[in-house]
Amino acid sequence: MTSQSTTHDGADETTGSTEPESALETARRQLRHAADHLDIDDQIVTRLKHPKKVHEVAVPIERDDGSVEVFTGYRAQHDSVRGPHKGGLRYHPEVTRDECVGLGMWMTWKCAVMDLPFGGAKGGIAVNPKELSEGETERLTRRFTQELRNAIGPKQDIPAPDMGTDSQTMAWLMDAYSMQEGETVPGVVTGKPPVVGGSEGRAEAPGRSVAIVTELVCEYYDRPLDDTTIAVQGYGSVGANAARLLDGWGATVVAISDVNGAMYDPDGIDTASVPSHEEEPEAVTTYAETTISNEELLTLDVDVVIPAALGNVITEANANRIAADIVVEGSNGPTTSTADAILAEREIPVVPDILANAGGVTVSYFEWLQDINRRSWSLERVNDELETEMRAAWSAVRREFERRDVTWRDAAYIVALSRVAEAHDARGLWP
Ligand code: NAD
């Protein structure tokens, strides 16, 4: 699972500052906001503001030129009341302790809204992976695994790919962990290649969940998919998979984009004929007869707009010009908090990222189950069970949306927090 920092442009409600919010500030603000709607013991909310544990480790490696360099790695484990920690490991120069804590907290809500038996975590190494050779990346990953060995494991904390890491990184991690344990332990990570215990359908899952949730929200607002126009920003793993599924289910995808711009066809794009980012990087505009900018795509007068490229693309600057009737968040944190308030005021429903793209962590859960049981599932079974989980999560969020007259985002956080808080309440405080 890849994800990126959710930074928001809203003023910090405690300081009045207009500085961009950090991932940790965003996570804490969302916690307070959801808690305001619920009758939760204050001591539980106070506990949830803090991570359970944060590991900070030095990761020395020998560079290809024989020199030794030391990087800093983190693993922030937020909460485990519902089960082992789960969340990505990113290799990025801007990885910090606080960012890991904030994103780990956010994973707690994402797992809880999907009702997965996991709590949140996030980790990574402050390093630019583009400056490492393959051998250096492998040595870095193996040493990082060794430093975290007592903190991770199938029953404790299960990492996954994130920015700058991929299925190969997870295979090295699993191998390093297994070598030290003296047995093959595939369940220590998810997002592995299927040949070493990865799941079918894992890579496509976030895009598939975005498509399923788009269909459900259209159904909710009485829009049959074959009468629905859709614009998708980003044609990578999330965007292309979502666009192709929705196209196949009858929707008219009128715009898709990559970093260079967007393809636009009001009659509908044949999404299968345009290569995704993985198939041919940045090919969208080269296949287009009519191109528009990414900014124009976001403000097209369509039924549904799906930002699926980056965070912070719907902002104070363009929220008043969003002409779509519905926004479905494919990427992580595409809507800043100020823009979110503007869209709420304009009564444009925004289906939040923690629900829409949660197919990734959900199929990671399936992968973990397959690894523990040493039995792989067919692609058909993975997709069927993903659909069942998405529909169940949607129904739970819809119930809160209708009952409390809140936004879809608030409803999702309310579902998540109430599940985590109830589990804390039932288990009590030890000792
Ligand atoms: P990807 O690298 O496969 O594709 C990204 C796409 O966005 C490419 O088409 C690229 O050209 C385009 N893009 C890059 N910069 C852009 C810009 N400035 N304007 C418009 N388009 C731009 O990435 P992905 O895996 O599809 O991830 C997309 C988003 O979804 C990220 O925010 C990621 O964190 C989030 N996400 C990914 C997963 C996953 O498992 N892949 C899961 C959950 C969330």
TrEMBL record:
**Stretches the record annotates as Disordered:** 1-24
Q: Does the keyword rRNA-binding apply?
A: no
Superkingdom, according to UniProt? Archaea
Any one GO molecular function term: glutamate dehydrogenase (NAD+) activity
**What PROSITE patterns is this protein classified in?**
GLFV_DEHYDROGENASE
An example of a Pfam family matching this protein is: ELFV_dehydrog_N
For site (Important for catalysis), what residue positions does UniProt give? 162
What keywords were assigned to this record?
Oxidoreductase
Give one GO biological process term: L-glutamate catabolic process
Where is there biased composition of kind Polar residues?
A: 1-20
Question: Is Cell cycle one of the keywords?
Answer: no
Kindly identify the residues recorded as the active site.
Answer: 122 (proton donor)
Q: Which residues form the Glutamate/phenylalanine/leucine/valine/L-tryptophan dehydrogenase C-terminal domain?
A: 199-428
Q: How does it assemble?
A: Homohexamer.
Membership in a protein family: Belongs to the Glu/Leu/Phe/Val dehydrogenases family.
Q: What is this protein called?
A: Glutamate dehydrogenase
